[in-house]
Amino acid sequence: MNLTTYSTDPAGLQSFYEAIISAHDTYAPVEKFGKYDFIKVDALSSCNPDSPIPKTMSVKPLFFPKSARVMKYKATSEGTELSDTEGDPLAGKRVVLGVKHCDARGLQVLDAVYKWDYVDTDYEKRRENTILISTRCNEASTHCFCTSLDYDVEKLDAFDVAVINGLDGKIYLQARTEKGEFFLKENANGLTVANGSAQEEMKQQFEKFAGSFRLKMDYSEINEKMKGRFDSAVFEDIPANCVSCNTCAFVCPTCHCFKISDEKLKDEGVRYKSYDSCNNVYFTLMAGGHNPRPVKYRRWRQRAMHKFVYYKERFDMNLCVGCGKCTISCPVNISIFEVVNRVASSMQE
Amino acid sequence: METEVKEKIVSIEKPHLEAPADWQPVIMGILCNWCSYAGSDLTGTSRLQYPPNIRIIRVPCSSRVDPWFIIKSLQASADGVLISGCHPGDCHYISGNYYARRRFLVTKKLLNFVGFHENRVQFSWVSAAEGPKFAKVVSKVTEDIKKLGPLHLYKKENI
Amino acid sequence: MDYTKQIQDIAGRLFSENKIDVFIGYRNTGFDENQVPVLINQYKDVDQLLFTDKSVFNLANYLKYEHTRNKRVGLVVKGCDSRALNLMLTEKQVKRENLYVVGIACKGVVDETGEMAQNCIECVMPDAVIFDEMLGTPSGRREYQENADVRELDGKTLTERQEYFEEVFESCIRCNACRHSCPLCYCAKCCIDQETATLFQGANTTSSAFHALMTWSLHLAGRCVDCRNCEKACPSHLPLHLLHKQNEKVIYGNFQEHLAGMIEEDRGAFYKYSLSDPDDFIM
Questions:
Q1: What is the DSSP-derived secondary structure letter of residue C50?
Q2: What CATH number is given for B25-148 in this structure?
Q3: Does a structural domain hold residue C190?
Q4: Which of A293, A297, B157, C190 has its CA 20 to 30 A from that of A30?
């Protein structure tokens, strides 16, 4: 299928956004307490699709919310009745504006695990009904390292419509998936089909963007090196100043661990699925009291190894998209980039 | 006039869904074993009437009440909370209610700060001999909560 | 305010005299102006240490982890940190003989925007109240002032406050970073984690966030020293200080001007009482 590129200018983009917001259920970054959350918006004035990267929370909660109902149960004299929960607020058709590139790739990573041996139907439905429209990433922030992790903005099909800056104030809207192509065709009022130089301009823009990264490394090598570092002493050393809060996992666009809890009243109840984190002491606590990961460095080792070794072996991708959100949110700024780099470059004992 | 209006606004919680006509408030009563619980017993044995909206929990002392008992009651199904203990100086454990008094003040103020009407959580000292006082206190609290209507703030989702 | 040289000297001296096993201080992140806490185990690392007005994190927090347990620890404390340390000592969480405390006569630290942080402007005790060695000239205790944000919210109507806090609790993701970064939240198992006993909800709903945050702030009432570690740790940037400062205001106003951790052997406001405490709110 041929994917079309449209061109417009900043004013055109604004009216494109406005048209989308008035026609569809739209989610966009809205400023709340000094950071941007993806929430439902009614007007373009209340949100900012080009929100700054370090202050924007990930788009993960729209697909894997902090707490979601899984099922209902009721004990009767005949036995236990199970039923589906209704009214998932995130299941409807919707459009998300201003999705960061790293966030969108995070969703692809989540797809791998949520559509694996057991398909999470709630998640699948939310994904299917959503059109993702990207933000314009122009410059890397301090903690960004997405280009180090098999990232290619030109081939990126993680979102449906890419919004990319061209030269001379031009803006290109490019369909990246079939869903995006249809969507753009329906909403293309005021947009013109781009001419031949568009590809070239976008490429230039990307090169400029890729050149602005402070953090760079070659991860194909890192994956190999990390495999043999399970017993590395560096793991014991690095997270000494970690305070074992769970922030890194909660804000991570790829972390997908959850806990199950029941809310019950007499004989009936609802089962919830909520975020959990491998940095939590109770994460591996078993009935009977044994805890295989009672100390901080073991939990940190699990986190780093899962992200760059185990997940890679199983799904052929890293469980990290290089967004740097964990480092920004961390109270003591522990950088996963730094940790992995140091572990990988440590000497084999 | 103006101050009167402002006072009125200040003390009104956000309007909620219309209460059903037959709505009755649920009040969580946390009573100390030695005074208030015995006091409520006396109310019963004296055949004094008081509203049946209160659900009583017995605790060893009013200082057993951790602030989260109150918060959890409000979050679960109660529309109001009444906590009652021995009069100052009468505590079975000598000074428990003095400690409790400090906690209650801070809890009450904090709940008011985050948006609960101050009548949602009330406290009283009721001794074992004060049956009529207990009936009066429960009537007053029920009356107050009825005026405020059902509590919808931060309720657990309906199951 | 730059005590980098002195702190490096002190840490070096302590290591060479074999008086400590760990030194807790600050180091540069390496890529920007901000500083992160660092735990130093040997003499050769002391030149990483520094202290400027960007040394924000409360280091007393690290005394509750396995890295420092039963070890001889040297650490740097500002005014607020030393009050937290004072409470930890009073509550028997650390042994005084295991500690070598470098007190700072603090001139205030900066927040993200580069201006003096709000808690430093309103600080009552900038100088360390407990120390083995003091750096800088103490400026003494200051007048208590009510928090500006609390005052502003207090002036609003109940409905407005209600709406404001609904948004706060809704934005909480219950990661518990506030609790983990608080030096005074050292319980081996926090009541908020007792989900299996259904004391607290396991689900991360607005309702459970309300329950957890309110309980947390009330358990810290009369003990909170306003270091704002919780607020710095919060990934949702919630104004958690509002809850603490509101409690502090009530406690200061009603309970003999009590402020947490100011003097040794002084436990929180809820561990003592006075016969003349206010009683008029009780029927």
A1: B
A2: 3.40.50
A3: yes
A4: B157
| Maximum alpha-carbon separation in chain A | 73
Residue whose token pair is 């992140």: C29
Amino acid at C104: I
Nearest CA in chain B to C198: B72
In a mutational test of the C interface, the residue from B68, B94, B107 whose CB has the highest number of chain C CBs within 10 Å is B68
C121 close contact with B: CB closer than 8 A: no
Which residues from C are below 8 Å from B13, CB to CB? 158-159, 162
Residues of chain B in Cβ contact (below 8 Å) with chain C: 9-14, 66-68, 71-72, 75, 88, 95, 98-99, 101-117, 122-125, 137, 140, 153-157
**Helices marked H in A66-197:** 101-114, 121-128, 178-186
Parse chain B into domains and list their residue ranges: 25-148
Q: C254 in a domain, yes or no? A: yes
> Which residue range forms the structural domain that includes residue C49?
4-135
pTM: 0.91
CB contact under 8 A, B157 and A265: no
Task: Specify the number of domains making up chain C.
Answer: 2
Q: Give whole-number Cα distances, B89 to A75, B38, B134, C276, in Å.
A: 49, 17, 19, 12
Residue C276 lies in a domain: no
Contact A250 C175 (CB under 8 A): yes
Taking contacts as CB-CB distances below 8 angstroms, the residues of chain B near A264 are: 159
CA pair distance C38, C109, nearest whole angstrom: 18
Q: Collect all residues of chain C within an 8 Å Cβ-Cβ radius of residue A272.
A: 202-205
Tell me, yes or no, if C34 comes closer than 8 A to chain A by beta carbon: yes
Smallest CA-to-CA distance from A274 within C266, B37, C202, C196 is with C202
C77, part of any domain: yes
Q: What 3-state class would DSSP assign to A234?
A: helix
Residues C169 and C231 occupy one common structural domain: yes
Give ipTM to 2 decimals. Answer: 0.91
Whether C281 has its CB under 8 Å from any CB of chain B: the answer is yes
Per-residue pLDDT of chain A (349 residues; tens, 9 = 90+): 567 888 888 888 888 899 899 988 999 999 988 889 999 999 888 888 888 888 889 999 999 998 888 889 998 999 989 988 887 888 889 999 989 888 888 898 899 898 888 898 889 999 999 999 988 888 888 888 888 877 666 667 788 888 888 777 788 888 888 888 888 888 877 778 877 777 788 788 888 888 888 888 777 778 888 888 888 888 888 778 888 888 999 999 999 999 888 887 778 888 888 899 988 888 888 888 899 988 888 898 899 899 888 988 888 888 888 888 898 888 888 888 888 888 888 765 4
